Amino acid sequence: MKGLTVRDIAEICGGRILRGDPEGMPCRISTDSREELENALFVPVIGERTDGHKYLCQVAEKGAAAAFTSEGDPFADDAAGIPESFALIAVDDTVKALQDLGAGCRKLHPIPLVGVTGSVGKTSTREIIAAALSAGKKVFRTKGNHNSQIGVPITLSELSGEDEIGVIEMGMSNFGEMSRLSRMVRPDAAVFTNVGEAHLEILGSKENIRSEKLHIQDCMPEQAVLFVNGDDPLLRDCPLREGVRRVRYGTSEGCDVRAVNIDLSHGRPKFEVLAGEERIPVSLNVYGMHHVLNASAALAVAKEYGVDLRKAAEAVAEFRGYRHRQQMTERDGILVFDDAYNASPLSMKASLDILENLNSGGRRIAVLGDMKELGAEEAEMHFGVGKQLGGKRQADILFTLGDLSREIAAGVLAAEKEMNIPEADRIPVRSFDDRETLYAALLSEVKAGDTVLFKSSNSLKLYELADRLGGNAE
Question: Is the pTM of this model over 0.85?
Fold first, then answer.
């Protein structure tokens, strides 16, 4: 957004300047009045709990250059304390204006953009793709979790003339959202990681989830590329928009970029990627089979954009994950496996697969909480996670938090009964409704040599317990 004046912004958004300096040049966008706002454009969002318009006076006093407003000029009768330069841009809808601004910034920077969507693993995949591309290009990418209807336009506003290619994370949870994101981003290529159960409560079925996410193609240009997970039966032969080319990545036959000779014996994958005539060795510094797919997607994208694949593989090996997303820390001989940023059945099963393959010399302890937004079949999905855990004996002790996670415990018991495991040899299960009570019980149980997995939906805040056990609490 650098270089755009208030007048430019108003023109892009179809807004009208009510007051202030039309030649002012905001340097960035904020939707949070608590942030540092010096020379920012403030976008007041009307939410369920609060209306950002209430803070216009505050943001003006904090040095913001301008703000959108859909509720007129609150300073028309009394502008005491409001800097004369502070500009107000009247728009019909502040979020729509923000999205129009994001789309306008995209048009000012017509570099290739790679969109990343999917039910699980978008952020990790985005980062691994960016790492692979960085072996040959200057890469712009989404920061943090700014993948929403508000986060994506803010991300686009940060594009600069120095960037050669960008990787944009694109998330959605409701009908119509992906189409709006595609209109803003206009991706030249897109990666679709998987179709899972996240947001089933709203979207109703996995087929609906796939259909909505495939709207990422809506504003892709002719000869654009859709990279799809060839191991996912819902994606392998998914419908393409006319003019879009498909590239499959994965481990199965028929994938254009294929991972083979996979070794997960120590948690961190080692494998080879077959891409055309090339055979590329890859060693990752993150855990889990799903990262084999993420790295394969990254090398597929790198190949498409002419990056040397051996250099791309070396760059991918430098990725070490995100906090609360499969982070490993050790304290007092206890290995803490923190994957508590969020959870779906697919990602929880993947985390249990990693726990199964970790060998720290002690016990494997799973601390699992409720998974949210799963819809009418939420109990069955929790039960299914338990069936896997119990059937594969992936933990030596299970702690659960919340009502739904008691179904995980029930699934463990059901699997053990089916296998005729004697009661004395069954996995000990302790279920809790209170986070602090669970933590006290965990502290009394855990000892040096143990590995402890934390996994749940974000709202349960199991990551706070992971931080405390791993010594990362602030």
Answer: no
